Amino acid sequence: MIRSILFTFILAFVFFIAERFGYTSFIHPLWKVILLFYLSLSFLMHRLVELGNQEKGERFIPFYMGFTVARLVLSVAFVGFFVYQGVENKRIFIFDFLVLYIFYTAFEIYGLSRKLRRDLKDRL
């Protein structure tokens, strides 16, 4: 979980610096809300992976697949809520959301594959 928090702080720093140097045409004003949403999804993923790794990892795959579906549904609901509420600059909002979705997905896959490789070596 510490890595997810650190990753979020790094992304927040990048957004903050970009905002201060005038790259506001690429950054939506609600970037903090989007980052908070992804941080909460990372926390949920962390908890589900811990639950799935109990009992020698037998429940890992169903938990991870369930999280993947939940992340997709929650993401669509999140974007749908803000678009329905009439958020300004919808294209920039959706673009920022999708870029962060790709970053967080890549980060989670990297973290899980690293952890699974280590667990596999321990079992052999």
Structure description:
The protein is mainly alpha-helical and 124 residues long. It has one domain. The chain has 4 helices and no strands. α2 runs antiparallel to α3. It is globular and about 50 Å long. 10% of the residues are buried.
The major beta sheet can be summarized as: none
Count of domains: 1
User: What is the average per-residue confidence, as pLDDT, rounded to a whole number?
Assistant: 84
Strand content: under 5%
Low-confidence stretches: none
What best-fitting shape do the alpha-carbon axes yield?
Answer: globular
Separation, N- and C-terminal Cα atoms:
26 Å
Rg over CA atoms, rounded to whole Å, is 17 Å
Count every beta strand, where a strand is a DSSP E run of 2 or more residues: 0
Helical content band:
over 70%
Order of helices and strands: HHHH
Number of helices: 4
Q: Which structural class do you get from the secondary structure elements?
A: mainly alpha
Topology:
Blueprint: H1 2-20, H2 31-52, H3 60-84, H4 90-123
Transmembrane segments: 30-49, 61-86, 92-113
Keywords: Membrane, Transmembrane, Transmembrane helix
